[in-house]
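TASK: fixed-backbone design
INPUT:
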């Protein structure tokens, strides 16, 4: 189904974006929807498996409640010629997993302001999902269960989008998980979930794992086999990120280790609480959306291995370039948010790279221009033209 002429109901099918054991996702167009969509379709043979179809329908029903700038929205759900489908918002931009790999190969450490921006926006998304209620005012009790770098997209507008609520658990789910069956990626699964206990704090554990990995550039619990991975989740002593990355401040160590407390009663209790701690730390180093986008584009423009601090140097140069707004004291989440799914990373225009090619001499030029303007204002005031 890679031909532009392929049709699925009113949808024109384009290239495949991904495929799993239950469904495929294609880029698609529809006359009824102005923007491109990510069309997720169950495989035909799955249509006869009642439990899997019910789970797919649960995902679609849940999506009607999820209306937040940091969550990829759902436009339509239905069944055509016996095939169940969900039409999602297509978000141009790389996943955080792709960003991690690109930085590991070509950039070095991800700057702390970038990590904080990703984490704050992720907490915004989870705060919305965890607090949703149905039409009668009853809490939906949503737990995503699959918060991980592959389910976070950095859009080309600077919004971080949480995707794939396919494993999400709610109080109203029509399909109940079998005892002992763990849903989600084992490296990001909370230890209490391994004992059958699940609530929103399990998602906050996963945020802690993602944060730790972004700050250190290393997988936290990953192991050669599932058994060892689960043993590490249960028992491994968790080092503070600063032990691997000395640039991490002690305050950020404390935020991450609180999220990774194995006793959920001692963990962050809500996504809002964790976000507040992150925003407080980020106030003097929060990024504007254009700065965030420019740095991400710069990172993907790199093809050679650079020195370890090149990412931070690039971010400083982007901020100092004068072409992008300076860092604001307000947290990024307080700005007005806009809309955005994934394009090939190779197609990302190297805006950030262009910023970095500006010579240091430009600063001197700007100083001269400022001096001329100031002199003009003084002269105008002296001769009464103002």
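OUTPUT:
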């Amino acid at each position: 189904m890679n031909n532009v002429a392929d049709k699925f109901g009113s949808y024109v099918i384009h290239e495949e974006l991904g495929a799993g054991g239950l469904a495929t996702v294609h880029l698609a167009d529809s006359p009824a929807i102005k923007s491109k969509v990510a069309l997720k379709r169950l495989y035909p043979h799955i249509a006869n498996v009642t439990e899997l179809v019910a789970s797919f329908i649960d995902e679609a029903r849940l999506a009607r409640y999820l209306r937040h700038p940091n969550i990829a929205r759902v436009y339509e759900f239905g069944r055509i010629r016996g095939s169940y489908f969900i039409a999602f918002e297509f978000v141009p931009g790389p996943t955080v997993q792709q960003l991690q790999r690109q930085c590991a190969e070509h950039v070095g450490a991800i700057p702390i302001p970038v990590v904080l921006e990703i984490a704050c926006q992720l907490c915004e998304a989870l705060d919305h999902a965890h607090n949703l209620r149905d039409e009668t005012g009853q809490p939906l009790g949503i737990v995503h269960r699959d918060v991980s770098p592959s389910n976070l997209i950095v859009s080309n507008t600077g919004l971080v989008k949480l995707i794939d609520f396919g494993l999400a658990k709610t109080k109203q789910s029509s399909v109940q998980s079998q005892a002992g069956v763990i849903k989600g990626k084992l490296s990001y699964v909370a230890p209490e979930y391994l004992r059958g206990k699940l609530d929103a704090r399990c998602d906050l554990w996963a945020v802690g794992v993602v944060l730790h990995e972004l700050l250190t550039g290393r997988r936290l619990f990953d192991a050669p086999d599932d058994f060892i991975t689960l043993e590490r989740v249960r028992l491994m002593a968790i080092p503070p990120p600063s032990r691997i990355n000395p640039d991490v401040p002690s305050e950020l160590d404390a935020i991450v280790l609180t999220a990774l407390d194995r006793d959920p009663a001692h963990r962050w209790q809500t996504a809002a609480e964790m976000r507040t701690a992150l925003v407080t730390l980020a106030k003097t180093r929060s990024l504007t959306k254009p700065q965030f986008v420019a740095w991400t584009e710069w990172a993907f423009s790199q093809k050679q291995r650079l020195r370890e601090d090149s990412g931070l140097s690039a971010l400083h140069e982007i901020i100092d370039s004068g072409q992008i707004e300076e860092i604001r004291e307000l947290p990024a989440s307080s700005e007005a948010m806009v809309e955005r799914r994934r394009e090939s990373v190779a197609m990302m225009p190297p805006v950030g790279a262009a910023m970095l090619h500006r010579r240091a001499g430009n600063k001197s030029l700007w100083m001269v221009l400022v001096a001329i303007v100031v002199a003009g204002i003084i002269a105008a005031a002296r001769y009464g033209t103002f």
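COMMENT: Residues 92-359 form a domain with the Transferase(Phosphotransferase); domain 1 fold (CATH 1.10.510.10).
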